[in-house]
Amino acid sequence: MQQPPPLHSTEDPVSARALTPSLRRRFVCLIYEALLVSGLLLVAGLLVSGARSELLEGKDRILFQCYLLGVLGIYFCWHWSHSGQTLPMQTWRIALVGLDENPPSPRRAVGRFLLATLAYGSSLAGILMLWKNLYPPYGWTMLSPGILTLLWAIIDRDRQFLHDRLSSTRLVIKHRH
């Protein structure tokens, strides 16, 4: 039985780009992922806060936000390290792999999650600051890591995001068997 060719090689960057999902495909998958994650966070939030009418403030609010971030971390890292795919990634036939072309180890998945969270989380905070017109220079500064990782995907030889490069992972097209 003949072995399939590797997903990428350093000698042939063109074949690596051919197996990398387009930015459009990844963006549509991200929208689907955002819908699922919104539902997940809603359920997780209701489990902890119930239908309380009072606002969470101070230390309680920070603990609640850390809890929700932990829920997201478990969701993504478990899926990435077990199958390399969340449900939206399965739908759009996108897989996360390590350098060995298998799903990343839990350690790599956590590293990727933390790096992506820093980039996109700070950018989300920057968008909110700009939207509410709070300290615009800081808003633009906080927006820059997310913009940087998106621009990186445009100039990267394999069209990978910066957090993928830094965590030694990559997104690939998963062919059906």
What does the model show?
This protein is mainly alpha-helical and 177 residues long. 65% of the residues lie in helices and 6% in strands. It is built from 7 helices and 2 strands. It has a two-stranded antiparallel ribbon. α2 packs across α3 (58-82) and α5 (106-131) crosses α6 (136-155). The chain is globular and about 50 Å long. 23% of the residues are buried. Mean pLDDT is 87; it is low at 1-15.
- Shape designation: globular
Low-confidence stretches: 1-15
- Tell me the strand order in the biggest sheet: 1-2
Name the assembly state.
single chain
Characteristics:
single chain; 177 residues; mainly alpha; two-stranded antiparallel sheet; globular
Write the layout of secondary structure elements.
Blueprint: H1 13-18, H2 23-49, H3 58-82, H4 87-91, E1 94-98, H5 106-131, H6 136-155, H7 162-167, E2 169-173
Antiparallel strand pairs: 1-2
Helix pairs in contact: 2-3, 3-5, 5-6
Give a short synopsis of this structure.
Helix content is 65%, strand content 6%. It has 177 residues and is mostly helical.
